[in-house]
């Protein structure tokens, strides 16, 4: 990998501190010029190409593979199968911790889902390996596939999401429903969805003895490294992973999965570097997805539109061999102040790759159902849906009873509604038309996502020339970590951003934690902040303890770091540059480490969430049923905004994702074979540019002293929540037709004209 | 990848000879063929690259007033030809509603006509498909078939032809010029695509080696230019095939329909010319009621092939709307969102 050449001095003028400035992304020029090196761009000398052959059946076993035919094909070097592969140090079926998922790495001839890797062909060229994989012509012993939400006996999973209880309740839901003046009982369905990151999963692996060099996009360098070390029985310090850029991950590159592991095995088998890149359709199986759900919501309200009970049950699926349960009903934990709330889950096992975290796991699926249901009960009460939400505003977290660490949701509702012009909305549906006669509908949805923190470390140094270094194995998935974290780093060491060498994206740097849960900026940022404070404290020690320094005697608390100088807090005329301090001390540099971690005491006391309010306008052709989103306004409160420019981009992306959820996205599964029938970007529809209307994002000011030292809540996922529901509700308002199966289809709206 | 021969003939005659061999296929832009090859759906032994043949990339007006479009003219060049768009606005609108800008830049006129169905079971080589492999069966028939045919299908195949371009072309009586082993011949576009019957493996009336060299629009096709539209309902605004589409063209004289042309897309294995609808409109006033009647006639023989009954009702509504739009007159400029029900939405950006 060549030295990264990030833009060091962005064109924007900056005033004051780095945090809060709308810098353009520092990797932007590299990417526009095609100079950003993604994993699959690496071609070490002697590299071979590996192509996976995958199962076309969903359940059964591979009876035979024509390995001889594949090997005869010119250019094919070897064929890795369940009976010809390098040994692993640990059975891949063993779950050594909750973040380990079972993977298919040719450990047996059993097939448990369509698209499962069943062999790997390694060849001199991609074309040879591809043809070799076809020539394997597998024969199967096939068993009937388990497909869909009714595939078998349901059961209550012990936990959903990451360790959440599958059932939670407060108050007496049945009594609340019985006493309600108005009730709704509605069932919503969401389809399986696939992450479909623009960059496919890819690995380039090279062994040198027991040392392993890897280029691979990952959202979790250290988790991946630990899993590889465990699987191959080598020490952590023998492994080096480079992941400077990800072309999107959305959760599917968070944990080590089967395909990159197969790439490492293949390299070991042939003793040469190997590249393995998934074909688009191969991303619909072994690398996770969002499970389908069927959610039943029963909601009661009294005569004044106050909730009396909220019951949210979600059915989902997991694979036949591992456990991940989309925590859809948990979306009802935090938003609305019902005196009685129950959330519960059950699941069935189907022949699918194990579902996984996909951008807003649980929140996205749960939000579209909850926000639709809230709209339905508001209409049952004859109330404006925004007024209904305000009436049931949760002043404390409903289930836990904890106060919020901060919650500017009311301001989000107010500012979003004002910008959108919500006050002019007709209460009744199917009342508004545009000049062309199209039905017009307005809908709203509340957005929420927990403000999470993981564990991270960072290392900071100040060098003799007065410049800074900040090292952290952080991940830029396109969200802008190279820029936002560098801004935090610059403030942490009191330097301009172009005076700080910011290193990230490799596994030899301190652990930045996983880039997931919308927590990366908060977690890595906190570690950077703390490392910066520590190195400045060391520098201050040097100065304030040295009688030759103008800062002598100021004490640690008595100086601040600014523009490469330490300045006496009580006398700004007394200061000294970093370079002067280090020169006098005869040191090449000072360095220090810092950590970022959740604060258990604060978490005990406060509920921590980001919030938002999304308003959407749709137009619907009254006869033809085609829907077009024409306007969206999202107002979000997510604590401190490190870079408003990047944050807006994240929120735009989330809102578009919500639009996709409501109107477009669905993996179509053949109900007999269990194969995904639209595993390509032509037929798996996500919005194109022409579908996306002008989007308006408002970031509502919010100061949160409790979530972390920087007050950051994270914005990676919240944009989806609220948005999907707002669009679904706008479609109802336009047409009077309440569609409860997503995505909303043309035929759902053809019922009347 | 399977090894194959690649030949680049110098003349049409050489091309026809090379492509008449078993296992040979023509390669133009390859926007469909290469995907089929990558997916193992098509495994030709020989590609006959016709992109360098001379004389196949012209748009010319012939002495009798017909327009001759060379088979290698790109979809984008044709749609953006000002004279073409003015004379045959529904064809230009259909072209611009198809695929994506990148694909339209590459894809050719001849290739558009000969693109294969988008039936997922045709593309999924693990599924049974009579079109891909004769006699194996049809897994679409009891499968995920919401988007499949409602007209002209058989128990052997319920696939649809995906082209937008062909729909107004067939309405305008386009003629296909073919060079084959026994010389040049021409057939109506309406005769080019075949309904599946018992031989769904044969998409078209072409014989081995046959090369489409041009598409011709007869002089009479121009008379509809002031009242011609294409309307396409799809699941996103660009880069999506039609759920159902329709072309409608009217010649209105003295407040009456002198002549009507109606064709449907996305409903059958061929672009579906709806002559019963045209007949019922002849000599009547262009009213919504008349168009309703025409729509009923157009879909009189329709029946669901699966989970797709909605397409019949949708097709009726699209026929009515397309006729209403045509009656209202061709807009002075092509809409920013071509063929979209939202074509008139203000502030729309280009698809």
Automatic annotation (TrEMBL), chain A:
<dbReference type="Pfam" id="PF02738">
    <property type="entry name" value="MoCoBD_1"/>
</dbReference>
<protein>
    <submittedName>
        <fullName>Xanthine dehydrogenase molybdenum binding subunit apoprotein</fullName>
    </submittedName>
</protein>
<dbReference type="GO" id="GO:0005506">
    <property type="term" value="F:iron ion binding"/>
</dbReference>
<dbReference type="InterPro" id="IPR000674">
    <property type="entry name" value="Ald_Oxase/Xan_DH_a/b"/>
</dbReference>
<dbReference type="Pfam" id="PF20256">
    <property type="entry name" value="MoCoBD_2"/>
</dbReference>
<feature type="domain" description="Aldehyde oxidase/xanthine dehydrogenase a/b hammerhead">
    <location>
        <begin position="33"/>
        <end position="144"/>
    </location>
</feature>
<dbReference type="InterPro" id="IPR036856">
    <property type="entry name" value="Ald_Oxase/Xan_DH_a/b_sf"/>
</dbReference>
<dbReference type="Pfam" id="PF01315">
    <property type="entry name" value="Ald_Xan_dh_C"/>
</dbReference>
<dbReference type="GO" id="GO:0016491">
    <property type="term" value="F:oxidoreductase activity"/>
</dbReference>
<dbReference type="InterPro" id="IPR008274">
    <property type="entry name" value="AldOxase/xan_DH_MoCoBD1"/>
</dbReference>
<dbReference type="InterPro" id="IPR037165">
    <property type="entry name" value="AldOxase/xan_DH_Mopterin-bd_sf"/>
</dbReference>
<dbReference type="InterPro" id="IPR046867">
    <property type="entry name" value="AldOxase/xan_DH_MoCoBD2"/>
</dbReference>
<dbReference type="InterPro" id="IPR016208">
    <property type="entry name" value="Ald_Oxase/xanthine_DH-like"/>
</dbReference>
<feature type="region of interest" description="Disordered">
    <location>
        <begin position="1"/>
        <end position="22"/>
    </location>
</feature>
UniProtKB/TrEMBL annotation, chain B:
<dbReference type="InterPro" id="IPR016166">
    <property type="entry name" value="FAD-bd_PCMH"/>
</dbReference>
<dbReference type="InterPro" id="IPR005107">
    <property type="entry name" value="CO_DH_flav_C"/>
</dbReference>
<dbReference type="GO" id="GO:0016491">
    <property type="term" value="F:oxidoreductase activity"/>
</dbReference>
<dbReference type="GO" id="GO:0071949">
    <property type="term" value="F:FAD binding"/>
</dbReference>
<dbReference type="InterPro" id="IPR051312">
    <property type="entry name" value="Diverse_Substr_Oxidored"/>
</dbReference>
<dbReference type="InterPro" id="IPR036683">
    <property type="entry name" value="CO_DH_flav_C_dom_sf"/>
</dbReference>
<dbReference type="InterPro" id="IPR002346">
    <property type="entry name" value="Mopterin_DH_FAD-bd"/>
</dbReference>
<feature type="domain" description="FAD-binding PCMH-type">
    <location>
        <begin position="1"/>
        <end position="222"/>
    </location>
</feature>
<keyword id="KW-0274">FAD</keyword>
<keyword id="KW-0285">Flavoprotein</keyword>
<dbReference type="Pfam" id="PF03450">
    <property type="entry name" value="CO_deh_flav_C"/>
</dbReference>
<dbReference type="InterPro" id="IPR016167">
    <property type="entry name" value="FAD-bd_PCMH_sub1"/>
</dbReference>
<protein>
    <submittedName>
        <fullName>Xanthine dehydrogenase YagS FAD-binding subunit</fullName>
    </submittedName>
</protein>
<dbReference type="InterPro" id="IPR016169">
    <property type="entry name" value="FAD-bd_PCMH_sub2"/>
</dbReference>
<dbReference type="InterPro" id="IPR036318">
    <property type="entry name" value="FAD-bd_PCMH-like_sf"/>
</dbReference>
<dbReference type="Pfam" id="PF00941">
    <property type="entry name" value="FAD_binding_5"/>
</dbReference>
